[in-house]
Amino acid sequence: MSPYMLIILIFTLGLGTLITLSSSHWLIAWMGLELNTFAILPLMAQQHSPRAMEATIKYFIIQTTAATMLLFASVSNAWLSGQWEIQQMSHPTPLALITIALALKLGLAPMHAWFPEVLQGLNFSTGLILSTWQKLAPFSLLLQIPPTSSFLLITLGFISVLMGGWGGLNQTQLRKILGYSSIAHLGWMILIMQYAPPLTLLALTVYIVLTSSMFLTFLYNQATNINSLAISWTKTPMLTALTPLVLLSLGGLPPLTGFLPKWAILQELTKQGLTPVAALTALSALLSLYFYLRLSYATALTTPPNNLPATLPWRIIFKQPTTFLAVLITMSLSLLPLSPSVMAFFTF
Amino acid sequence: MSLLKIARLPPLKLLNSIHDPHLLLHSNAPLTVLRRALSHNKYRRPGQPIEDKFPWENITFNFSKGLERIKKNFKLLKQEFSDRWVGPEGKSIINHMLEQNRVIWEFRGPESLQEWTVSSDEMIGGQSKVYLKLGKNDTCFLYGTLCSAPPRDGETRYSGYCAMRSKQPLASFDRKKHYDWSSFNTLHLRVRGDGRPWMISIATEAYFSHQKDDLYSYFLYTRGGPYWQDVKIPFSKFFLTNRGRIQDDQHPLWLDKVNTIGFTLGDKVDGPFQLEIDFIGVCKDFAHTEDFAYETCKRNPEV
Fold first, then answer.
1. Are strands B162-166 and B116-120 parallel, antiparallel or unpaired?
2. B180 → closest Cβ in A172, A305, A311
3. In 3-state terms, what secondary structure has residue B129?
């Protein structure tokens, strides 16, 4: 792609998210979401392969459906309450509709089926943007709107954790695994949103750090499925040693960073009297942990059949900078001891 | 003088669904005239069967068959549920990682032929014939006669093909299932032909309607003779075609959602042909590192 076009698209992507983040009017927020959608479409389609085009069109249809629902709900709210403020929504029906529209945008269950398929059709860098940056704008809106029916948010959250774990169990394609992992993590964030929004932000930030580490690791190894990940020890031994730890951090195991949001969320849910929900969610997280463990096992604890011990080293693009990946992996593994300061940072 | 057979017409209320008004008129004409009139407004391509039944006559209601299908589908669903706990595609992760060869189709009994379907230009009015049977050594034996005379329908100019294609694998309740060959990079066949060149076509899952005829193809040159031929074709060699035409925009074959594989003969040489297939499998060749054999850069770039 022409570098000028790339700059314009990335700028528009950033602009769209920032417009949504900083707006208090529904129409402006909707406009930011649309800018986001349209800016990422050429980035997704730049490969021109049939699967990339399929992913692009699926993403377009889903996002515009969600944006249309959002617009309809905000217009209905304006008609019923006479104002367009995001934080002043009072009528329950538009509120519920907006929640469902934003859930569709994010890929929360039961509106999650598109997300792994779309991710599978993209390359790792675009998939990374889709999994991280594209979540910011809808989440900012979800955090601003008054809490809707408690039952709706808890249902969306719990089903997402469950479906994210269940769907990823049988997968061998790494992008789809990361897609289901994303769905599960979004479920955790939605569960706690109405009780402790700062914890949602904390979970979102930790999720972005962990997912970015994984995407960049797979990008560096050029691994698209479990078998190609399993032979990555011949290409990047150091990264292969750290990858299982990042995966276990994604699974929420102490003493890694990923444990922090899950611990805080379970604690808060228990304080709110939702102990059964907390217990069931923790059990559902075991499903996700199973396929993270499977990936860790395949990556570092096996020696799969291979041609030569040092096979295919020329396939690694050695000029690719790894500084950012190193920082992300460090943050993914070692932030738990800093929990008090991290929590204080988010509970502003 | 024998009495003419008078057709018993269906009740009038059922005829309301027929849009051709002339059929509503009672007639003592023989049955064949009425039935020919059923489709006289639509063009019937030579080779297509005459539609001589009303749509409701094609319905066959069989309760026991329906029950059997329900049982079979629930059994498949239970299997899918339990396979998910074992590992990818029902195999443990160790098996999945250690697997370097997999036989997909092995023709060892008559039931293996049920997974395949044959077609030729006979369905567009041509004269080629193709048959599939189990060979002497429990192999798949595809044979027939190729005839490149085009059908005399006034629009077809070229003809002469015979093909064999695997059926789409189905999960429970007739949902589409796909083959995941992403752990492999080579197609391995053991065939015995008669020297004719065949085309192997792999169809992957397509999303857009204009991609429904997209096939990834490569040649299979058979050497006639008593010896079996082990053919290994890397998937990177398959090129994209649509309705037989090689596309300008080439893309590598994505192996995670393969639907069907087929063999086509269309070498414009009239006469009998035979192809015997022992097995069709996939394997991982670590020495083959090519991603795609053809250029993916833009041809005729704008200056």
1. antiparallel
2. A172
3. strand
CATH number at residue B192: 2.60.120.430
Is the Cβ of B100 closer than 8 Å to some Cβ of chain A?
Answer: yes
Residue A263 lies in a domain: yes
The answer to whether the predicted template modeling score (pTM) of the entire model surpasses 0.95 is: no
What's the domain range around B171? Answer: 101-283
Cα-to-chain-centroid distance, residue B111? 17
Type of residue numbered B48: Q
Q: How many helices (H) and strands (E) does chain B have?
A: 4, 13
Number of structural domains chain B divides into: 2
Chain B residue numbers with beta carbons less than 8 Å from the beta carbon of A226 are: 88, 93, 96-97
In 3-state terms, what secondary structure has residue A215?
A: helix
Quick one: DSSP state of residue B44?
-
Q: B183 and chain A: CB distance < 8 Å anywhere?
A: yes
Instruction: Please give the distance of CA B241 from its chain centroid, rounded to a whole number.
Output: 16
Q: What is the ipTM of this complex?
A: 0.84
Number of alpha carbons in the 13 Å side-chain half-sphere of residue A111: 17
In chain A, the number of structural domains is 1
Distance CA B198, CA B275 (A): 9
Does B71 reside within a domain?
Answer: no
Residues (pLDDT < 50) of chain A are 309-310
Q: pLDDT tens, A25-79?
A: 999 999 999 999 999 999 999 888 889 999 999 999 999 999 999 999 999 999 9
More reliable by pLDDT, B153 or B228: B228
Domain presence at residue B296 = no
Q: Over the stretch B200-241, which tens digit does the pLDDT of each residue have?
A: 999 999 989 989 999 999 999 999 878 999 999 999 999 999
Residue A125 within any structural domain of the chain: no
